[in-house]
What we know:
Helices cover 49% and strands 17% of the residues. The chain is built from eleven helices and eleven strands.
Amino acid sequence: MKQIAAILLLMSSAWAADFHLTVAGLGGEPDYESRFNMLAADSKKLMGGDVLGGAAATKAGIQKVLAGYAAQAKPEDTLVVVLIGHGNVDGAVFKFNVPGPDMTVDELRGWLDRIQGKQLVVISTSCSGAVLETLKRENRVVVTATKTGTEKNAVVFARYWVEAMRDAAADVDKNETVTALEAYNYAKQKTTGFYETQKRLATEHSVLDDNTLAARLAVVRFGAAQKAMNDPQKRLLLARKEELESAIDKLKFEKAAMPIAEYKSKLNALLLELARVQEEIEK
């Protein structure tokens, strides 16, 4: 059995993310801005690769990184692209909100089509379901936080997608490898649980295209960094981080029913504590 497991692990390594890009788009508000960038930073620590955030996360910046991948990638390689932020549909065209001109799905498709190998593209934004038909292609897994372009509210899916990269519970078959399908199922279940706990009508319904490839495409393997996240102290910090994230989402939902000064005071307090918890997690 050990020999079989070793062979399977070697086979799965061929699917490792040779190229990985995470982009934190415009937040529009300070709390979204900081949370998008925190998620992107977590993504880099857990999966490696390149991260674009803040002023660097422009359409030109994304194009430059992907063009670099296109110049290097081989048919046996794997590309993972994760977009975290806000999206909108302008007419019939999906756009990812970034500093300067927004990036359209057609532009993204053109850049991705020049890159050889297998691809996983995760669009964790509002309205992201609008990209499915445009991005669909052989050897490309597409994950969206919403099922259509009409689900316009901010999404929580990105939080749980990144969480899947460090939570051993996402590794359903316990082979120390989280596939795209395992990560998606974990994030989908957590997102559903979020709305049920908050007693709110779900405003996002994620979609995964190409289950077959997703089941074979490894996104992350649990090593020292991930194991460190499973020690008792880290678990407590991660639990507190989740509580704070949920409290911020709940506060934003209740914003219209309270004075703006009270809202800002409560939001700033939550963001400060979130930043402190994040700092402790990163030690």
